[in-house]
Automatic annotation (TrEMBL), chain A:
<keyword id="KW-0813">Transport</keyword>
<keyword id="KW-0968">Cytoplasmic vesicle</keyword>
<dbReference type="InterPro" id="IPR022775">
    <property type="entry name" value="AP_mu_sigma_su"/>
</dbReference>
<keyword id="KW-0472">Membrane</keyword>
<comment type="similarity">
    <text>Belongs to the adaptor complexes small subunit family.</text>
</comment>
<dbReference type="GO" id="GO:0030121">
    <property type="term" value="C:AP-1 adaptor complex"/>
</dbReference>
<feature type="domain" description="AP complex mu/sigma subunit">
    <location>
        <begin position="18"/>
        <end position="157"/>
    </location>
</feature>
<dbReference type="GO" id="GO:0006886">
    <property type="term" value="P:intracellular protein transport"/>
</dbReference>
<protein>
    <recommendedName>
        <fullName>AP complex subunit sigma</fullName>
    </recommendedName>
</protein>
UniProtKB/TrEMBL annotation, chain B:
<feature type="domain" description="Clathrin adaptor alpha/beta/gamma-adaptin appendage Ig-like subdomain">
    <location>
        <begin position="704"/>
        <end position="817"/>
    </location>
</feature>
<dbReference type="InterPro" id="IPR011989">
    <property type="entry name" value="ARM-like"/>
</dbReference>
<feature type="binding site">
    <location>
        <begin position="57"/>
        <end position="61"/>
    </location>
    <ligand>
        <name>a 1,2-diacyl-sn-glycero-3-phospho-(1D-myo-inositol-3,4,5-trisphosphate)</name>
    </ligand>
</feature>
<dbReference type="GO" id="GO:0035615">
    <property type="term" value="F:clathrin adaptor activity"/>
</dbReference>
<dbReference type="InterPro" id="IPR003164">
    <property type="entry name" value="Clathrin_a-adaptin_app_sub_C"/>
</dbReference>
<dbReference type="InterPro" id="IPR013041">
    <property type="entry name" value="Clathrin_app_Ig-like_sf"/>
</dbReference>
<feature type="binding site">
    <location>
        <begin position="11"/>
        <end position="12"/>
    </location>
    <ligand>
        <name>a 1,2-diacyl-sn-glycero-3-phospho-(1D-myo-inositol-3,4,5-trisphosphate)</name>
    </ligand>
</feature>
<keyword id="KW-0168">Coated pit</keyword>
<keyword id="KW-0653">Protein transport</keyword>
């Protein structure tokens, strides 16, 4: 019988392109986590701890790919934030690197020169943008315009509802 | 607060986040969080109904707290309420909460599914997308059950908005990944394939992931996608860099879609249609050409996107492995990358070249880069890149460059990362053995390995060098001289002492003529290491000493004195004490002749697959050693003969009566003895039968593979292959055994015996005729067994095979895969009947149950095939849970019929099964349960 940890099982058996995406700061604080494979909270925490440690220990000029368990981690640092994706060994590392970059561009365009604070205070938006871009661990829409159009439409929908809603406690809508 | 706050700001949330950020300590943070949790809880429990905005705000706060790493055990209901809000913003937060904190609470799932159902049928594309995102994010089985049939309809409907189609495609893919049995494409197949032609690039990008996955599983149904993919790819590749507008990424047209198209094509062999193939080859050439063009932008994104496509194209070229021209071009391109200033490209080039090295068309081209790769191994600063370089050197190694590569790997080993040393050691050992023409070089290499990385040299490696030295008499003198010299070092690794002890014990006489390595000098050298060694090594050294007494009678007195001293003869370790006592006695009572016979030089080991290679395969998983396997297929001459797993193992002796064992001529290890003890050193030294006895342990492995099938290869080693074909009717069976001689040498005295041990002789009747005693090299002979099942049984008949190969007696015992289930007659029955009988068989002893972990994938089709192979009828629409399998059958024996019902309940989430058997006879339930628990 195969003697594999249950953790490895669900993470390697379900063949989903991007298994998960993590954003964390140089201080090791997790800023965003998106899991495309089903894992328990305990497993997620364990993986996060392990990966944050491994990636932070890497030196600047090292390559952006590293083998980790049966998977491959593709990561890149933008200012104070590390973005990292877990893919399978046979998957395309470079195109994954550009998935990360496109997501950064999307955040940047939406927030206007995005910084770590934007993601902290508007984490829900960061999730919404990610869901428009990647779904089920696969690229859903790679056009920057189309993704942002979808998000902006949603925002617009919110504005309209908000203005019609007298019960709203705050109208601090700023541009 | 950030400058930008788009959409609706939730001020309360922002304040809370600021508070948390301002906390000076972890304790302060926890305090603040607990305060907030108490606040939210009271709000949720309060009498006053909360408005949508507050509910959303609190749910969002809970989400934030959860994402900080704290547990959240309430708020799910409020989040579910938000789903049915008609305000987009509230709905969206509700869905986000559900996606992140999915709870398998079934009450809740039903409510969530209801909300999703409403949104899916709302015809509002924004709501539909939210619902689809939620399904894709959660992807649970309950959701698959509820929506798997609805989503394909949305995907292919003419009036579905593009954005909804995109979400639907990937949502379906996600459900298919976890519950493939619930996603049935059937009638939609052709329309889904044609999404590759969709005008909207986003739709194609999303749909192709789904199509690729479905093609992998059902290549035939989806094969029309090949020509569509080729023409789509061709259009993209030949388009100008601005044609595709927003799908152009840093001057590269549609890189993601291109990669996905190339990936899809890797599910299929090269297109058969000449025109399609021509067009594809053109695309691949264009991609290779573009790599040579000057970059259109200096941005790394440009080169990354361009190279991502290039690497994917190279993967396809390697996958086809049929276009020598493209393979060599790919190799040259990668060669350029080997010296690129981007670390990422160097890493990928090394990795990709590794697969190219295994193609016969490009192997030579890869070899031309050896200097660059060696340089990378020496100078790369990133260990993961160095590791790729080492892998590539291993892959490109052949007889022409083996010495250079092994030397480089050895010197790398001195500074290599601890994490990869063991693997490096195995690789060096394999290459040294595989490509050794000059055996003194092989011996030097392995001894160097022990010197440099002794701690990482596993038993397999040093067993192997001994096996080879014993099998090659041209290297024995050299080996003795070299180990003697190596042992001169004041601190040498224990593995070196083991090898030294063994080799000098066997071949010390070959260097004894030189006064500098006279018998006594040799003995004193070995004995000077004795006290620093572990018990197994000391045991081995004691055996070397007794061999010395035989080789060099002049050392007898000295050695007897050593054996006689209290620290040996009264050693607290039983093994050491026993050896000392026995050897002392043997040396004093046995005549010279007896001594010479008993302590004769080891006979050659039988030829078998290198155990080191097996170890590397096990370590790296299949595929990792593909190059070596490729080489194995076209075996070149001059390979070393190798022994198998058996090494000069020094594990404890198994016989309680030492004197009987010493002088008795042991012919075989008793059936059932553990393989470890079969290889014990004493057995080796004294056994007359030689190495043959080793394989006499019963082979269990092949046996279990035949529970659910009747034909296949039961056993195979370097010498012999045994195939089986069998058929069963009622309580009778006939089995054809095919013995194939894989060598070019005749097998003599070939005899086979089938026996039914113990009470099995009363349960099973097996008859056969003897086979011809000679099996020519390359020939196959057949034997027929007639089997009759008298009553139910649990044991398996044993097949013993004996023959002589090159003088050595081979002895092998296998379990014949005759299992009780072979006598099944399938029984069809309706649900009602099944459960009625199930209830009738309700005595606790009639039921056997096991819960076990899946050891294979849980693919429905495979499971069904196995259950049918079992011999029972697989009953549909019986179990209320369609995930479960139920089977029924009657076992036919001469004396009686035994009715059996089986139920297998898979749990895909946990990767577990529960297997329940109920039979009219207790022992049958038990036996079937044991057999089947190993099958899934």
């Amino acid at each position: 019988m195969k003697q594999k940890l249950p953790l490895l099982d669900s993470i390697t058996l379900i063949d989903i392109y991007i298994r998960f995406m993590l954003l964390f700061s140089r201080q090791g604080k997790l800023r965003l986590q998106k899991w495309y494979v089903p894992l328990s909270d305990k497993e997620k925490k364990k993986i996060t701890r392990e990966l944050v440690q491994t990636v932070l220990a890497r030196k600047p000029k090292m390559c952006s790919f590293l083998e980790w368990r049966d998977l491959k981690i593709v990561y890149k640092r933008y200012a104070s934030l590390y973005f990292c994706c877990a893919i399978e060994d046979q998957d395309n590392e470079l195109i994954t690197l550009e998935i990360i970059h496109r997501y950064v561009e999307l955040l940047d365009k939406y927030f206007g020169s995005v910084c770590e604070l934007d993601i902290i205070f508007n984490f829900e938006k960061a999730y919404f943008i990610l869901d428009e871009f990647l779904l089920g661990g696969e690229a859903q829409e790679t056009s920057k315009k189309n993704v942002l159009k979808a998000i902006e439409q949603a925002d617009l929908l919110q504005e309209v509802r908000l203005l019609n809603d007298i019960d709203v406690g705050t109208k601090a809508v700023s541009y | 607060m950030p400058a930008v706050s788009k959409g609706d700001g939730m001020r309360g949330l922002a304040v809370f986040i600021s508070d948390i950020r301002n906390c000076k300590s972890k304790e302060a943070e926890i305090k603040r969080i607990n305060k907030e949790l108490a606040n939210i809880r009271s709000k949720f429990k309060g009498d006053k109904a909360l408005d949508g905005y507050s509910k959303k705000k609190y749910v969002c706060k809970l989400l934030f707290i959860f994402l900080l790493g704290h547990d959240i055990d309430f708020g799910h209901m409020e989040a579910v309420n938000l789903l049915s809000s008609n305000k987009y913003t509230e709905k969206q937060i509700g869905y986000l909460f559900i996606s992140v904190l999915v709870n398998s609470n079934s009450e809740l799932i039903r409510l969530i599914n209801n909300a999703i159902k409403n949104d899916l049928s709302s015809r509002n594309p924004t709501f539909m997308c939210l619902a689809l995102h939620c399904i894709a994010n959660v992807g649970s089985r309950e959701m698959a059950e509820a929506f798997a049939s609805e989503i394909p309809r949305i995907l292919v409907a003419g009036d579905t908005m593009d954005s909804v189609k995109q979400s639907a495609a990937l949502c379906l893919l996600r459900l298919y990944k976890t519950s493939p049995d619930l996603v049935l494409m059937g009638e939609w197949t052709s329309r889904v394939v044609h999404l590759l032609n969709d005008q909207h690039m986003g739709v194609v990008t999303a749909a192709i992931s789904l199509i690729t996955c479905l093609s992998q599983k059902n290549p035939d149904e989806f094969k029309t996608c090949v020509s569509l993919a080729v023409s789509r790819l061709s259009r993209i590749v030949s388009s100008a860099s601005t044609d595709l507008q927003d799908y152009t990424y840093y001057f590269v047209p549609a890189p993601w879609l291109s990669c996905k198209l190339l990936r899809l094509l890797q599910c299929y062999p090269p297109p058969e249609d000449g025109a399609v193939k021509g067009r594809l080859v053109e695309c691949l050439e264009t991609i290779l050409n573009k790599a040579q063009e000057p970059p259109k932008s200096k941005k790394v994104q440009h080169s990354n996107a361009k190279n991502a496509i290039l690497f994917e194209a190279i993967s396809l070229i390697i996958h086809y492995d049929s276009e020598p021209n493209l393979l060599v071009r790919a190799c040259n391109q990668l060669g350029q990358f080997l010296q690129h200033r981007e670390t990422n490209l160097r890493y990928l080039a090394l990795e990709s070249m590794c697969t190219l090295a295994s193609s016969e068309f490009s192997h030579e081209a890869v070899k031309t880069h050896i200097e660059t790769v060696i340089n990378a191994l020496k100078t790369e600063r990133d260990v993961s890149v160095r590791q790729r370089a080492a892998d590539l050197l291993y892959a490109m190694c052949d007889r022409s460059n083996a010495k250079q590569i092994v030397a480089e790997m050895l010197s790398y080993l001195e500074t290599a990362d601890y994490s990869i040393r063991e693997e490096m050691v195995l690789k060096v050992a394999i290459l040294a053995e595989k490509y050794a023409v000059d055996y003194s070089w092989y011996v030097d290499t392995i001894l160097n390995l022990i010197r440099i990385a002794g701690d990482y040299v596993s038993e397999e490696v040093w067993y192997r060098v001994i096996q080879i030295v014993i099998n090659r008499d041209d290297v024995q003198g050299y080996a003795a001289k070299t180990v003697f010299e190596a042992l001169q070092a004041p601190a040498c690794h224990e593995n070196m002492v083991k090898v030294g002890g063994y080799i000098l014990g066997e071949f010390g006489n070959l260097i004894a003529g030189d006064p500098r390595s006279s018998p006594l000098v040799q003995f004193n050298l070995l004995h000077s290491k004795f006290h620093l060694c572990s018990v197994p090594t000391r045991a081995l050294l004691l055996s070397a000493y007794i061999k010395f007494i035989n080789l060099f009678p002049e050392t007898k007195a000295t050695i007897q004195e050593v054996l006689r001293c209290d620290s040996q003869i009264r050693n607290s370790d039983v093994e050491l004490q026993q050896r000392a006592v026995e050897y002392l006695k043997l040396s004093s009572i046995a005549s010279t002749d007896v001594l010479a016979t008993v302590l004769e030089e080891m006979p050659p080991f039988p030829e078998r697959e290198s155990s080191i290679l097996a170890k590397l395969k096990k370590k790296k998983g299949p595929g990792a050693v593909s190059v070596t396997e490729l080489e194995d297929n076209k075996r070149e001459g001059g390979e070393l003969n190798g022994g198998g797993e058996r090494g000069p193992d020094t594990s404890a002796m198994s016989t309680p009566s030492p004197s009987a064992d010493l002088l008795g001529i042991r012919s075989a290890v008793p059936v059932g003895a553990a393989p470890a003890s079969a290889g014990s050193l004493l057995v080796d030294v004294f056994s007359e039968a030689g190495p043959a006895a080793v394989s006499a342990a019963v082979n269990d492995d092949g046996f279990l593979r035949f529970v659910c099938k009747n034909n296949g290869v039961l056993f195979e080693n370097q010498l012999l292959q045994i195939g089986i074909k069998s058929e069963y009717r009622q309580n009778l069976g006939r089995m054809y055994l095919f013995y194939g001689n894989k060598t070019s040498v005749q097998f003599a005295s070939f005899t086979t015996t089938v026996s039914c041990p113990g009470e099995l002789q009363l349960q099973l009747n097996v008859q056969t005729k003897p086979v011809e005693p000679l099996v020519e090299g390359g020939a196959q002979i057949q034997q027929v067994l007639n089997i009759e099942c008298l009553t139910d049984f649990s044991e398996a008949p044993l097949l013993n095979i004996k023959f002589r190969y090159g003088g050595a007696l081979q002895n092998l015992t296998l379990k014949l895969p005759v299992t009780i289930n072979k006598f099944f007659q399938p029984t069809e029955m309706a649900s009602q009947d099944f459960f009625q009988r199930w209830k009738q068989l309700s005595q606790p002893t009639q039921e056997a149950q096991k819960i076990f972990k899946a050891s294979h994938g849980m693919d429905t089709e495979v499971l069904k095939a196995k259950l049918l192979g079992l011999g029972t009828a697989l009953l549909d629409n019986v179990d209320p849970n369609p995930e479960n399998y139920v089977c029924a059958g009657v076992i036919q024996t001469k004396g009686q019929q035994v009715g059996c019902l089986l139920r297998l309940e898979p749990n895909a989430q946990a990767q577990m099964y529960r297997l329940t058997l109920r039979c009219s006879k207790d022992s049958v339930s038990k036996r079937l349960c044991e057999l089947l628990a190993e099958q899934f």
